[in-house]
Write a structure and sequence with these properties.
about 300 residues, mainly alpha, 2 domains, about 80% helix, about 0% strand, globular, membrane, transmembrane
Length: about 300
């Protein structure tokens, strides 16, 4: 187990350097950003103590990917494999847990720790014969596959938007919009095999434009029900919902570009870290998107002409 964490630490340092970030700077900056972002979240969001644990669950689920899990199963006994999974999730929730303790929210702290441990034992649902219909065409495979795996999250988001009307809380409706864009961004966490990129008769610019256009179209489509409800009952505040629509679109675009900018196996982990940081500090996307676009275009040049 010690060897595993030694290699993991080296791997994290290597990926940080691939991002152009000095590891020591990242280890200082990330806690500062998390503290600032969490403080802002609690100041500006109603019922933050209820929503914060949900954000932690999204974060842990984001950076957990099946290939790494399969690797652990092959290399370690079942007992050590379970222990590593539990420790990994505990390490991931520790920053959030420390912040909740700092805020003297002890019940929420225990909940976050328990959720992290429980997630380490959850297995993926087995495939069933029923094929869930989707509102998408065949070719945006990220949305087709992703929607069928996470359709229940959309039901929850739509339910939250209805609750926002019943309890007269506009912020809950906005949270529903944010959660949908967040889930849509996760569809672009894993890079498809290079062959499925190579078969496109496009230039890198055309390929990225096509991917981004599809993602924007269907992300907005999924949020239309919530925006429509908010427009009817909170028309004087609809500009806030539209502002979050724009930020949500930028968030999805950033994930797409990250997907092709860094095509290594640990990509999902760093997408998760950067994604959560940008949730807390959205203006960072205006700097990151052009950088990731340049990197993605450069990487795709070898596959697309």
């Amino acid at each position: 187990m010690k060897l595993y964490y030694t290699l993991l630490f080296r791997r994290i340092n290597r990926h940080l350097k691939e991002l152009g970030i000095e590891p020591i700077i990242a280890y200082v900056a990330i806690p500062c950003f998390m503290y600032w972002g969490s403080s802002s979240f609690f100041e500006k969001v109603m019922y933050a103590n209820y929503l914060y644990p949900l954000l932690v669950v999204f974060f842990v689920a984001t950076i957990s990917f099946s290939k790494h899990d399969d690797f652990l199963k092959q290399q370690f006994s079942n007992l050590i494999y379970r222990g590593i999974n539990v420790l990994n999730n505990v390490f991931l929730v520790l920053p959030f847990l420390f912040f909740l303790v700092y805020k003297q929210l002890y019940a929420e702290s225990i909940l976050v720790l328990l959720l992290g441990v429980i997630l380490s034992f959850l297995k993926k649902l087995s495939k069933v014969n029923f094929v869930l219909p989707t509102p998408f065409y065949r070719w945006p495979h990220e949305f087709i596959v992703g929607f069928r795996k996470t359709f229940w999250v959309f039901l929850l988001s739509y339910g939250v938007s209805v609750i926002s009307i019943l309890v007269d809380n506009f912020n809950l409706g906005v949270f529903g919009i944010v959660s949908i864009f967040f889930i849509c961004s996760l569809y672009y966490s894993n890079l498809e095999p290079q062959f499925y990129i190579w078969v496109h008769a496009m230039t890198p610019e055309e390929f990225l434009k096509n991917k981004i256009t599809i993602a924007i179209r269907y992300s907005i489509l999924l949020t239309i029900p919530i925006v429509s409800i908010l427009a009817i009952f909170y028309f004087d505040q609809i500009y806030i919902a539209l502002m979050f629509e724009v930020l949500g679109v930028l968030y999805v675009v950033m994930y797409i570009l990250m997907k092709y900018a860094f095509n290594s196996l640990g990509n999902a982990m760093f997408q998760g870290i950067i994604g959560v940081l940008c949730l807390f500090f959205p203006p960072a996307m205006f700097l990151l998107i052009p950088y990731f676009y340049y990197k993605a275009k450069s990487n795709l040049t070898t596959l697309l002409k």
